[in-house]
Amino acid sequence: MKNILIIGCGLLGSSLLRVIKKKKISKQIFIYEKSKVNVLKIKKLKLPGIIINKLDQRISNVDLIIVCTPMSEYKNLILKINNFLSSKTIITDVGSSKSESLKIIKKFLRKDIFWTSGHPIAGSEVSGPEYGKSDLFENKWCVLIREKNTKKNHLSALSKFWKKIGSKVVLMNSEKHDKIFSMTSHLPHLIAYNLVKSAQDFEKKQNYDLIKYSAGGLRDFSRIAASNEIMWRDIFFNNNKNMSTAINLFIKNLNSFKKDINSKNNKSILKKLIQTKKVRSQIIRLKQDINKPDFGRS
Amino acid sequence: MKNILIIGCGLLGSSLLRVIKKKKISKQIFIYEKSKVNVLKIKKLKLPGIIINKLDQRISNVDLIIVCTPMSEYKNLILKINNFLSSKTIITDVGSSKSESLKIIKKFLRKDIFWTSGHPIAGSEVSGPEYGKSDLFENKWCVLIREKNTKKNHLSALSKFWKKIGSKVVLMNSEKHDKIFSMTSHLPHLIAYNLVKSAQDFEKKQNYDLIKYSAGGLRDFSRIAASNEIMWRDIFFNNNKNMSTAINLFIKNLNSFKKDINSKNNKSILKKLIQTKKVRSQIIRLKQDINKPDFGRS
């Protein structure tokens, strides 16, 4: 590729920057970043790429645009770049939920332009260009969305791009994507936020100093609950229907656990606890986590 | 001390064994372990200590007995050792919930014998003597239970013992202990089990292969949900009243999140997400977790 434009240079954008440079995937890299704080960080870190401070006709010659902003910015961004886009340019994003953002894209993007949606499974609780790293996507899944109107040659070029980055590519439609990730990512995040919120409420009510005893389990949830609030608000709002279904299933199961506990139903609770245990070894076998007790923390 | 008897030699018991030997806290260490599999492991690992295969009059000369079995075994254990115990012996345990097990102890332990209850905050998802390590308790909290009938000189000797082990000791009554840990440990474990259970139910119903996409959050919960089922059944059953209260608060808050999501209440959800985020830095400041993104996993 001759040139790539990264719009939004936080954790994911700056990691892309680093790996594109490292693996020489593109001759030139342009960066557009709205936040002045982040621009200063990018300069201080001497990240590769040319910072542009305006999205104008220069972007019409770009081979690939990767949108790495929060999803709530897509609409304004599209309205800003619509007139400068070329139908040859491959446009993609890294947003964590798909159906709703595809509706926005369909509604506002110029009809002769193609947007091929993507989602690398590589976030973490930190955000900002200072946390990016060139191996963030290495051996991670990258979901690319294939729908009826997906431009085939763009999809295949993007697939090659992510494989070069080091990711494993999988294709699915936005509906399936949003259902799967409502359960493996979006609900876990909401649950983590909710557990920490409940601990805070309890601490306040009981006037106990309890956070200092959080090594027994709470600390794990606090990591996830430290994730970027704008990004997660957008995900929860965009995937709200699947979230509702997931929350209802979760509450139903939690009430069943509560019943087991209060009636001391040995058989029923052991069945659940033994069955859930199996998932851990499955996750390790699938190389979705490291095989060290306590994540190797000491 | 001249001699210490460890009853139950899994993760915690075998870690105590290792650190007692390493720091030369006692001249002799005796081990009583019911499981033949664990006894074989202890021999193969060449762990320090003399394995005894019967609890009889030999235990009356022991300075300190540390019970490291699941809490559901306390009753039978007490009935087995009652006649051989001396009132000079300090007896303690490492069980994770306190009020219910203290009732069992009060009911069945000989009236002239003292049991000083303890809870080192040092578990993990693995169990068995092969996972023990001499620094498991280093810089971790150890809660010692102080109630009206607690034998003061035993409590003070135990406090010294745990400090020598490397732990930070804190005293509280069993009621406060069970409330605090219902929120920082017991509820997080139940929530983790419940999330994994919900993901399994969802996978079955939707016929989606979703565990392979668990790196987005689910994998963290699967670690906690891989914990020993007997130990956790005992904790949930023993602390059932506080668990119920904690579950109710959790469901109330989750329904409030659901309402925010479905009504797209920006102000309300951002307030929650920003507030919960603060706990992470508090936890790191209190040295309850390591200060590395993603727990330092790569």
Word description of this protein:
2 copies of one chain form a homodimer. Chain A is of the alpha/beta class and 298 residues long. Chain A has 2 domains: 3-172, Rossmann fold (3-Layer(aba) Sandwich); 176-296, 6-phosphogluconate dehydrogenase C-terminal fold, CATH 1.10.3660.10. Chain A has 10 helices and 8 strands. The first copy, chain A, has helices spanning 11-22, 36-44, 74-81, 99-108, 152-165, 174-206, 218-224, 229-238, 240-262, 266-285, and strands at 3-7, 28-32, 50-51, 64-67, 90-93, 118-120, 141-145, 168-172. In chain A, the strands form 2 sheets. In chain A, strands 3-2-1-4-5 form a 5-stranded parallel β-sheet, with helices on one face. In chain A, helix 3 (74-81) packs parallel to helix 4 (99-108), helix 6 (174-206) packs across helix 7 and helix 6 crosses helix 9. Chain A starts with a strand and ends in a 13-residue tail after the last helix.
Layout of SSEs?
2 copies of one chain form a homodimer.
Chain A: E1 3-7, H1 11-22, E2 28-32, H2 36-44, E3 50-51, E4 64-67, H3 74-81, E5 90-93, H4 99-108, E6 118-120, E7 141-145, H5 152-165, E8 168-172, H6 174-206, H7 218-224, H8 229-238, H9 240-262, H10 266-285
Parallel strand pairs in A: 1-2, 1-4, 2-3, 4-5, 7-8
Antiparallel strand pairs in A: 6-7
Taking all Cα atoms into account, the compactness measure Rg of chain A is 21 Å
Estimate the strand proportion of chain A. 5-15%
Whole-number mean pLDDT of chain A? 96
Class by helix and strand content of chain A?
alpha/beta
Which architecture of the largest domain in chain A does the CATH hierarchy give at level 2?
3-Layer(aba) Sandwich
CATH class wording of the largest domain in chain A: Alpha Beta
Q: Report the end-to-end length of chain A measured between terminal Cα atoms.
A: 44 Å
